Amino acid sequence: MDDITAEPGAGRRQRGEGRGAAARRASRSGGGAGPAMPYITRKIRTYEVLDEEGLALIEHNADVVLEEIGIEFRDDAEALELWKQAGADVRGQRVHFPKGLCRELLKTAPSEFTWHARNPERSVRIGGNATVFAPVYGSPFVRDLEGNRRYATLEDFRNFVKLAYMAPSMHSSGGTVCEPVDIPVNKRHLDMVYSHIKYSDKPFMGSVTAPERAEDSVAMAKLVFGDDFVENNCVMLNLINANSPMVFDETMLGAAKVYARHGQASVISPFILSGAMSPVTVAGTLTQILAEVLAGASFTQLIRPGAPVLFGTFAASISMQSGAPTFGTPEPALVSYGAAQLARRMGLPFRTGGSLCASKVPDAQAAHESANTLNMTLLAGANFVLHAAGWLEGGLAACYEKFMIDQDQLGMMQKMAQGVDLSDDGQAMDAIREVGPGAHYLGCAHTQANFQTAFYRSPLADNNSFEQWEIEGRKRIEDRANALCRSWLDAYEAPALDPAIDEALLAFVASRKDSMPDAFS
Amino acid sequence: MDDITAEPGAGRRQRGEGRGAAARRASRSGGGAGPAMPYITRKIRTYEVLDEEGLALIEHNADVVLEEIGIEFRDDAEALELWKQAGADVRGQRVHFPKGLCRELLKTAPSEFTWHARNPERSVRIGGNATVFAPVYGSPFVRDLEGNRRYATLEDFRNFVKLAYMAPSMHSSGGTVCEPVDIPVNKRHLDMVYSHIKYSDKPFMGSVTAPERAEDSVAMAKLVFGDDFVENNCVMLNLINANSPMVFDETMLGAAKVYARHGQASVISPFILSGAMSPVTVAGTLTQILAEVLAGASFTQLIRPGAPVLFGTFAASISMQSGAPTFGTPEPALVSYGAAQLARRMGLPFRTGGSLCASKVPDAQAAHESANTLNMTLLAGANFVLHAAGWLEGGLAACYEKFMIDQDQLGMMQKMAQGVDLSDDGQAMDAIREVGPGAHYLGCAHTQANFQTAFYRSPLADNNSFEQWEIEGRKRIEDRANALCRSWLDAYEAPALDPAIDEALLAFVASRKDSMPDAFS
After folding, report:
1. Where is the composition biased (Low complexity) (chains A, B) (predicted)?
2. In terms of DSSP H, where are the helices of A304-390?
3. A474 touches chain B (CB under 8 A)
4. Is this prediction's ipTM beyond 0.90?
């Protein structure tokens, strides 16, 4: 089940033929999308903020929370019955876990697995030294290329799928890249899953807003990958938020059960705004996160032992003055670093971070908050990174310009992750000997041989002189991002998709839509 | 010589009485400067990108560079003579160092020392787990509060000194915070040193642009601290750039000699734009930096054994397309992380990083590049950080708005450096027990007791709703930074300065100015 070279069902395998052409066309249009990069295999160390004593203390405290306080599994009789059978002490909807129960159950969860794309070249590893970036998730609004902030539409959704497809260091197509508010709420998952399959060949996420929508997502995946392949391989990662503090609700449990039964991955993510949903301290927040993840992740193993599951963490704080969420500050970074360590000790792949910010525009606030979060994300060793590009306003808006700026930063993180080249070529002693004191390296043989790949090249940073920048119209980075975004969308070419699969998907979508009245809330 | 509580000469000790009043006034004006923070004592680990093998390889290669290729000490007969006497092989202006010579000489250099301020409460440690932030250095232009980019003046210089004095997490007054181009080039050091002493009580840097200007800086310091105190304590840190590759020039050597003779600190800093002044690779650049620092730092010990000296690194790359310098990219971050490791192994305090960027305006480009650099700076364990706030355009312009944005980020770094509180209060088990599943922490006793200090509070980030932000005029962070900067400058109050010292300083400045004709180049 776990070989990255495994290929979807015979006769249905899709090559990404269109990809090369799209990349070339975008590249010709100037500063365009380069070739798609494989997922990141980190050659650099992880950064750690807790020592053994601190980790053991938090693990102990989480065990106390699980046993003494317990976690609620709300309005799901099946879940409560499963916990009873597993040996938990269930009182009402509150589950109290004997010490060690959750960890014992989690022994069947894989520490690494492959998340398959319909184009096998785009399949990614989740866990270990792998890092996978995915776009913004869940925004009801967009900030569009005309500078308007408005409700998102299906066209926006498709645009973000296209941009994620073209961004070299975006390794996944993501999930709800924005909420297509123009489509009825009970039907939009069909258009979303279809758009991911149609407009990209990178791995995508399933719908989690209702069990039947999760079932639809699985059914559509089966039309692409084949029944057996889906039942035996992960083709969808699915975001299961805890209702912190210490609650899993019916909706999320319903989706988690569907995905686990079909062997698909759950990302168990306490959604934490410290000070509101968790204590105002880092260690207290980590304790609660660990308890919640232990309960939620082990629940997936009750459903199907071996189902892939991630230790997720969404960490932010609230302003103690206004109650508003804040991002990119030190405390959530410490929480995420610590959670990453706890996840590694637990042997589960880890999700955190992204390019988070509270700003309403892609200004320096947005960038500082995003960069503080993203640098931490890389060094923490996050395996799966939602919201890696396009996130604005605490996630309320998906922003085209910020998507472009962020995806450039993802390229930098990908290069950073390669670490220091200590080969003879990296050591460059020939160059130092050739150049000598007082000369320069621009023309030396070593520079000539290496300059194409030596440095990460940003398509958006303006490094020219002030005078040149003035002549070119005193553009800010968001102006350049706007132009680059337009050129990418112009140059976009869809990856090939077997017409028979396309037809089957469209028929499924039509049939499911026909079976339901429109619902808008 | 090395006790942080040591105080400048009797009768000359200055208390920062004005400080509290200024802070209170700024605070009353809204979002103002808080109380000055002490220098950072890092409780978090350093991040490392090289293992033992890599470090040993680079050290070996640097030894080869020192012995085989050598370093030029240009137009300084005294320096060459000193190297001959020390056992080096001097051929023309090129010095070849027998293996181990530089490291042997550096055994007398302190691994930590105190950089004294005229207000002892503002004295800082340099080395070990200490991190000290200093403002932008050397910009001929400013980007002012009216949005104009123009040559800097003495008034700008004083303004940046005042802002650095008021910024809570700026631990030093810096040096050439901008070039006061309206003052003759041969006299402006007098106004600069005087301004640091008059308008701040944080530790400052001396002039390095000519040996006689270094002597003037020492003479003025003696008027404040007393002769003996200066000769036996570090009261000035001084920036000595190598002329990379592998050259120290007459000017820098002249200043280094003056400062070392008086026991003042030199920051030996290869100024590296990789690809031009060093190889295009990280390991090659590290090798050259290490060789240059070994030569330059050990030279200070030839002048006066025991003189404080720092391992400095200014790391950037050039665009291989345009030749322009680029900042905040992965390769210079790897260089700085590696250099920090080499410095720690050498037992020298380390300088790198800051808030570097190439952008012409304080936009998202400026912020991403600055944040990438600053996050690295903290985690690398840099001891002294020049350009920590205000740097724009690759250092060509000092920007008021960016200064304000950056100093906010410095506050975040200072908080981050405190790491995770694992005390009972940090663990917050009482809070988790009190709140329980499904409730919130806003009103619980633990939150009420801790919310004032729990989270870093940015005076500039807008975390409000989109609607509130619209009502407040759709301001970008640079608009808010502009307003905050104006309020700080309005609220500024100078720290107390003994009138006798002030008079002596003014008389010295007048006398020195009278002794020279004006020079403008």
Report:
1. 1-11
2. 330-346, 364-380
3. yes
4. yes
